[in-house]
Amino acid sequence: MTVQNRISVSFNDEQYIVLERLSAHTHKPKAELIRMMVGEFLRENPDRFRRKTPTGLKRKTNIVLPDKPND
Questions:
Q1: Which residues have C-beta within 8 Å of that of residue 46, sequence separation ≥ 6?
Q2: Alpha carbon distance 2, 44 (integer Å)
Q3: Among 2, 4, 15, 28, who pairs with 11 as Cys (CB 3.0-4.6 Å)?
């Protein structure tokens, strides 16, 4: 059976050591920590990956993430 919604990420050695320590400290798997970090980043920076448009359109709601996280 194939797995959907899977992504591969790469870390250098220093970043991986930090992630390993954080995982041990919080007792959470590294994958869960990465999901949390990406989610928080996108909530705080919703326009980070949007292209600049000449109209200067600003969205009032974040269409990338829902208003309330499904925790």
A1: 59, 62, 64, 65
A2: 32
A3: 15
